[in-house]
Each structure stands twice: as C-alpha cells, then as structure tokens.
Design brief:
This protein is α/β, with parallel strands linked by helices. β3 (84-89), α4 (92-103) and β4 form a beta-alpha-beta unit. The chain has 2 domains: 26-262, 3-Layer(aba) Sandwich (Aspartate Aminotransferase, domain 2); 264-376, Aspartate Aminotransferase, domain 1 (Alpha-Beta Complex). It is built from 13 helices and 14 strands. The chain binds pyridoxal-5'-phosphate. Pyridoxal-5'-phosphate (PLP) is lined by residues 11-12, 66-68, 93, 140, 144, 169, 171-172, 192.
C-alpha cells in the first residue's frame, strides 16, 4: 500500500512511519479480550522504560483522549481537600492548566512569567514558603507555544522541599528529549501517543508515583471520566481501561514504542536535535529571527517572528507549502505575530532542506525580502 508522505512541522501530531500507520490494520478484536489486556499491560510497562521509571515505584495509566486529558486528570485527581495548586506559568500550556483549575473550582496560584523568559526560581520558592497549603506544583517542560525549556529538575526539587507533589506536562518532550523521572524530581509526567512516540492521536498516558495515586483514592472525586485513581484501580483489578480504549490507536502506539527502542534514546534525541539545527540554519539564511533565546530553547520547537515585510502573508506561504507536502503552523502567543517549525516526528535533515527549498520559493513568489537572495542582486 502506497501512503503519501507529508512532512508535518506543526507541534504534533507528527509525521509517522508507514509501519506505525499500518500497525492499525489488525483483525477486529473486542478490547475486553485477554489478548488485548496483555497488549496494554506490555505497553504500560514499556512506557515506564522511556522515562527510566522503576516498576516497583511507578506506574503508567492510559486514557482515551488527546494530551490535554492528562493535565485535566492530574490536576483534578491529585489535589487533597482544602489544598492549593501552584502553576509555574510561562506559556500557553501552563495557562491551559490554570483554566482547568478554574473549571474544577480548585484553589490555585497562577505564578506568571513572560512567555519568553524562564521562571524565576526565587519567586517560585517565595510562593511555596508563604503558602503552606500548596500540595501540588505543576509546570510545562517544553512550552510548545514558544519552544522554551523549563528547569523542571529545580522546580521539582523546590516542590518536594516544601512537601508538594510535582506534576509536569512533558507532552512535547517525552520520547524525544531524555527524561529521568527520578533524577528530574518528577512525581507525574505525561504525553500522548502522537508526539514523541510518533504514533496516532487518541491515546494519552500519565506516568507517575504509584503510592501517590493510591493516596489519592481518599481525595475528592471531581470527575467521573477523568479520575486518575479510578482508571489506575480498574487497570490493576482487570487489566482493562475503565471505558472503551482506542483499540487501533493502541496497536499503533505499541509499534511506535518498538521503533523508539530500536532507534534508542540517544540516537532519537540526536536526530531531533540535528533536525532542530537544520531548521535554524534554514531560518538564519533567510534572515528570520527566533522569539526565544537560542540557549533556552528545548531543541524541538522553533518559534519564529514574522518578518517586517508587507509582502509576508503567513496563510499564503502556508498554503503553498501545504500543497507541496509540508505543514507549517501558526504561533500561539496572543500579542506577538509568530509561526512555528517543529523538529518532531519521523523526519530528518534532508526533509528540512527539502522544506526550505519550497518555503523559499513561496517567499520569492510573494516578493518577501530575503537577505540571502538580496545579496545576490
Ligand atoms: C500537544 C500538547 C498538549 C496536548 O494538546 P492536545 O491539543 O490536547 O493534543 C499538552 N501539552 C503540551 C505541552 C503539548 O505540546
């Protein structure tokens, strides 16, 4: 079967291999069969290995939904009665966590920093010191809207020092940038199958501390569908998801994990990094500028400022690239005009070189000033 290969430079879902796409073509199976439970059991065990989590201390819990379900589940399930959540917020995904707190009427402190700056750890510590009711600290590892990498190990250390649980949204780093759950001071991390695992949308997972999940059995149940303990308990007792799992998506995730281990943690990270460097090389040559200081970037998302040129029209450039098999993505910052190019997915340096040939052709067509070309004139 011939499947057209599109290069997705959006921040997930990412470009997948054909073997992952085809892994979904399986005989029909009722997911309540033991065969399927065994498949999910192995998947849950293998997910632990991605973040070097020991099965004695950690577990993984699967959910049917996009990545946001994980943030929802962690925040609504892991907060004891009468306690407060601290969100260390320097971007769109931590702001989403704040909205989740609002929707569940949870007590929270939204400690905001500019989107193009790292959180100030002294301020984080001051808030923890002054608010002894904080029981959970949450932040985002790679803020996918800007590509900034947050110092999770340091934030986690502070959270633990003040007796709080640390949950991290690792959706846009897990299975790409190496994570060590214990060394990084993480109690709960999370992702969905369509990002680092380079599999399909619809399956999300939380990897975290088993005894903390067990403790949370006594916390208020704020959601029927999205409760961490209930889903964990159901898995432990029956090997099943509480409600119908995304069957074919699970097969694709199993294949995605197999390919992750075959490539290897280091080789995978090096590949993403060289794709990221190639993106920067291409942008530099055309005179584009980053939003985030280069040394603060996580190595996966490049957030690019619009050029100061009346001929620049993002949608026109997007449509030209799209027609040629390349997807670029708008920014996610309210008061700045940016777009994004991401180093996610089953792509390599040659794909980026091919992309820039197309991107440059779009700019030339539209008459956008390009330093590299202007020099030749
Ligand atoms: C992609 C992503 C999510 C999940 O977003 P969905 O739209 O629910 O798929 C959450 N957090 C981060 C940091 C992400 O990059």
């Amino acid at each position: 079967m011939e499947i057209k290969r599109n290069i997705l430079l959006n921040p997930g879902p990412s470009t997948t291999t054909d073997t992952v796409k085809l892994a979904q073509l399986v005989p029909d199976i009722c997911p309540r069969e033991k065969e399927f439970a065994d498949l999910m059991h192995r998947l849950r065990q293998d997910l632990l290995k991605v973040v070097h989590a020991s099965p004695d201390k950690y577990t993984s819990v699967l959910f049917c939904g996009s990545g946001t379900i994980n943030i929802d589940v962690c925040l609504n399930s892991l907060l004891p009665e009468g306690k407060r959540i601290l969100i260390v917020n320097n971007g769109a995904y931590s702001s989403r966590a704040v909205e989740i707190c609002q929707y569940y009427h949870l007590d929270y402190t939204n400690l905001e920093f500019p989107v193009d700056e790292l959180p100030d750890l002294e301020r984080v510590e001051a808030v923890l010191r002054e608010n002894s009711d904080i029981a959970l600290v949450h932040t985002t590892h790679n803020e996918t809207g800007t590509g900034i990498l947050n110092p999770i190990r340091e934030i986690g250390e502070l959270a633990h020092w003040y007796g709080a649980v640390f949950t991290v949204d690792t959706t846009s780093t897990l299975a790409m940038r190496p994570i060590d759950i214990e060394k990084d001071n993480i109690d709960f991390c999370m992702a969905s199958a369509q990002k680092g695992l380079m599999a399909m949308t619809g399956l999300s997972f939380i990897i975290g501390n088993k005894s903390l999940i067990e403790q949370s059995a006594a916390y208020p149940k704020r959601s029927y569908y999205c409760n961490l303990y209930m889903q964990y308990d159901y898995f432990e007792k029956t090997g099943q998801m509480h409600f119908t799992p995304p069957v074919q998506t699970v097969y694709a995730a199993v294949q995605g994990l197999k390919e992750y281990f075959a490539e290897g943690e280091t080789a995978r990270w090096e590949r993403h990094l060289r794709v990221f460097e190639a993106i920067h090389e291409g942008l530099d040559a055309l005179g584009f500028q980053d939003l985030i200081r280069r040394e603060w970037q996580a190595g996966l998302v490049v957030c690019v400022k619009y050029p100061d040129d009346p001929h620049w029209d993002f949608d026109r450039v997007h449509d030209y690239c799209y027609a040629h098999g390349f997807t670029i993505y708008p920014g996610k910052i309210s008061d700045m005009d940016t777009f994004r190019l991401c180093a996610l997915g089953a792509i390599d340096v040659q794909d980026i070189r091919d992309f820039f040939a197309v991107f440059k052709a779009a700019l030339v067509r539209d008459g956008v000033q390009i330093p590299e070309i202007d020099e030749l004139r």
